[in-house]
Predict the 3D structure of the following.
Amino acid sequence: MNFLLNSLFSNVLVKLTCLPPTFLVGFKRTTSKKEASQVKKTTRFVIWICSKFTRREIEQIIQGLIEVLANRNPEVKPKDDFKEKHPNYRNFFVDPEPPLKAPPQKAPKLNWKELLSNYQKEKGHPLLPVNNKDPKTKAPKGSLCRVCGAPAEYLYFNDGKKRSQLKCKVCSSLSQVHPRHRNKAKYYCPHCSHSLYLWKERKDVSIYKCDNDRCSSFLKNKGKLNFAEKLLTKIKSSQFKLRYQYREYHFSEKQLRHSAPEEKDASCLFKIHNSLNTLCLALTFHISLGISARKTAFILRNVFSLPLSYQSVLNYTEIVAPYCHRFNKTYKGEVDHIQAGDETYIKVRGKNHFVFFFISSCNRKITAYHIEKSRDTLPAVIAINEAIRTASPGEEITLVTDGNPSYPAGIHFINQNYEPNLTHKKVVGLQNLDKESEEFRPFKELY
Ligand SMILES: [Zn+2]
Ligand SMILES: [Zn+2]
């Protein structure tokens, strides 16, 4: 093979050198140096493949590559030259920090309690709170004086109908009404405390964004852009995620159900024409040992003299699946404080589906196995919910996953109502390029 290829290429070379010089000049002009070296690289690679693999193996490699090029393999994609030069283009990562629910308060410069006791010493009587019976001029509950920290009882509106400025009776300073009472901002940026605005609203999610141009997160992400990316932001700014964002999901109870095998008629199991021993034997080979249905039927027939068709093996598997699923869920028991999660794709009736697995790090239990058509946030939330369902109260759980952004987004959603909050560790790529990947890779490799 090697010889054949070599002779083929030398043949081409001979043919090229035989061509008139004008043709060669034109040939050189249209082929850049880079392209020429690329052709050389590919040629060498073809020769290398032919020296290592048989014809049959090469056919399999080609079939695999055709699958990748036709986009039929969701796990492998060709290297993207554009992506390498523009690493931040369409890099829609999920910010790991949750938003603040209220703007942080600055420590007051004076102490209102000290001021009150000084007042009493000087005047001989205490300073009474504001005598305000009109609810319209009463300071909103929870307001504080920015200067001395005096509570709402000592504050009153100083600007009539506008109701935006509060005056403090203790230190006589003016405070703006707390932003919480002034506007309806729900979240605040964890980097700059600026209120987040509702950027996009969809059926399942509301996306909030920080639009502060001096936000440290925005400036940091902007600083990471290379020259080519900076140019690209001028025309395609929407393709770069530079600002802090928070995705608030609104999944309903109904949406959050873990997938389960279809429930068959419960009496099916007792109507089969074989004993339960035969059924268990068939399942041991087919499920526990992962032997195909046809081979299982073959073993049962030829080794155990049990005449069983491969279709019966498949039917038995379907009948017992709901029982096994219920058993797994009911008797899962405790889970470890570190769990690893990953998705793998399977074909269901010819269509790609994903199984979201979680595995407990010490006892090696599979704690969740949710199946869904997509790799979105919803299936990630369902799998995580199931993985932590039997955790002991107060157990601090760390989840180790790959770089799929559905996990951090899902963890944000769960952490809104889950104490203590889940911690997320990401292991990216096949090599350890960051500290977190290095520390937590052993857990990822449990799969
Ligand atoms: Zn004050
Ligand atoms: Zn910000």
